[in-house]
Amino acid sequence: MHRHRHSHVLQLDIQGTPQAWISLEQAATRVAAGSVAWVGGDGPLATLRGGFNARRGRQSVLDVHPIIALHGKPRVNLFGVVPALARHKLLRRDRHTCAYCGQRFAEQDLQCEHILPASRGGPWSWMNLVCACGPCNGRKADRTPEEAGMPLLYLPYVPSRWEDFLLEGRTIRADVHEWLAARLPKGSRLC
Ligand SMILES: [Zn+2]
Prior knowledge:
alpha+beta, DNA Binding (I), subunit A, 2 domains, four-stranded mixed sheet, two-stranded antiparallel sheet, elongated, binds zinc ion
């Protein structure tokens, strides 16, 4: 039980659209409440032992799976939902690869680079940011890639909801990763 402390369960709506990463304890509550319609993944994340049921003469057991879909109406409107932008998600989207020199770097050696410089009105957005190493970012300075003669080696894009959950999850089990990856749009760099 203790080693699962940091595990996260992917909560879906009944149609399989990701809703949230929840804790094992939150997931167990939903299982116990009978809110789970179906589960996914290769097997239980944890088996929790509950109280002793005198009538049935045995202890209750709750299997908590790494993917749980809840009963009820789907709540998310998929259209027009732009995933919140965060540095660690951007770096993952771009596979820790500098958009200008194409080399991979550790997280601390990468920066979020404005394609159209912020000083010229370039927004902090999925479509105007790529990750870049310090030297490339410094060399490009307050110029566009065209002006700097530094073409982008890959293009920015807005992640889909499924992709966003992959980007967000800090420690994702292989089977959950596979489940999300199977639902990524064509052309995603996370495939
Ligand atoms: Zn670089």
